[in-house]
Structure formats: structure tokens, C-alpha cells
Amino acid sequence: MDVTSNSHMLIQPATDSDWSWIEVVHAQTDIESFSYDHLDDNAVTRCRERVAQQIANLRGPDAPPHAVLVARDADNSRAGVIWVEEMRHQFTGKSMAYVTLRYVEPGYRGQGIGRELLTAAEQWARDRDLDALELNVAMHNDAACALYASADFQPVQQRMRKCWDRG
Question: What are the tens digits of pLDDT across the range 33-67?
């Protein structure tokens, strides 16, 4: 799946040389989604370990159907990545695609690359005849929330939390 876009980006499947970068940006993206009251050294370490295990599982023989697509500029520099996988809804059993990771390098943000990656993931899902494309987004990530809303994503669930002092 190679997609050439108006921004002169090439979106293509991840190569072996991309995986160490993907692991770093995946962990970074997850860590940035934490609320500050949950961010400590143990949480960061656990997050990095979980991402490493998740990638190992993805690249293993029992991995679900998935696509990891990397956007590259004219110099072949990585500009962004999206990881989408097929899943079944836990209650309805309907097939859907789930975006596990969407990341755009800071120097490339605001240029439509996130939208291009999202479009490529949606096309992957449509090509597989899946019913929907879902993702999670931190409520404080205004840019991502605006992108998803402009791409016709609708909120389907909200997680709420009440914290208290345990001291």
C-alpha cells in the first residue's frame, strides 16, 4: 500500500528499520496522554515495557490483521506513523479497525500529515470491509480532538475519574 499525497509525502508500510523509532514515539505518545497526577517514573517505565511487548506481539506469528504505515518526505525522512489493527467489539462482535498509534513528528505538524495517515488507515479498514474506525484521544490533546472531529469521528464513550488524597 503506497499512497502519494498532495503534501509530497509517501505513505507506505513500516520497514524493519522503522521499528526502533516507532517504539520510541509510541511510548512517548502514550506517556503524553497520561494525566499529570499519574505521571511518575514507575508509570513511564511500565509504559515503555508495555509498548515493547505490544510491538513484539504485533510482529509475532499470532498478530491480528494490522497495518503500520509510515509517512516519509521527499528526503525519505520519517514524518509520521499510524498503526491500525482489526478487532471485534467486545459486546457486539462487529468487526472494526482500531488506531493504536497516530504520531506526527513536531516539525511536520499542521501540514495535513495526520489527516493523510488517518485517511490511509480508513482506506485500509474499508478495504477489509470493516464496519468502523475507532481510536482513543486524551481530552487535553486539542489538536488531535479537532482533527478527529473534522474527519467526522464522533464521541462514543467518555471515561471519568475521581481522585482523592490517600495521605
Answer: 766 556 677 878 888 898 899 889 888 888 889 99
**Number of independent structural domains in the chain:** 1
- Which residue bears the cell 489527516? 115
Return d(Cα 54, Cα 59) in angstroms, integer.
Answer: 9
CATH for 139: 3.40.630.30
Cβ atoms of 136 and 153 within 8 Å: the answer is no
With respect to residue 165, please indicate whether it lies within any of the assigned structural domains. Answer: no
pTM to 2 decimal places: 0.84
> 117 exposed, middle or buried (CB, 10 Å; 0-12, 13-18, 19+)?
buried
| Size of the chain in residues | 167
As a whole number of angstroms, the distance between CA 25 and CA 104 comes to 9
DSSP designation for 63:
P
Give me the domain span that covers residue 84: 3-150
DSSP letter at 136 equals: -
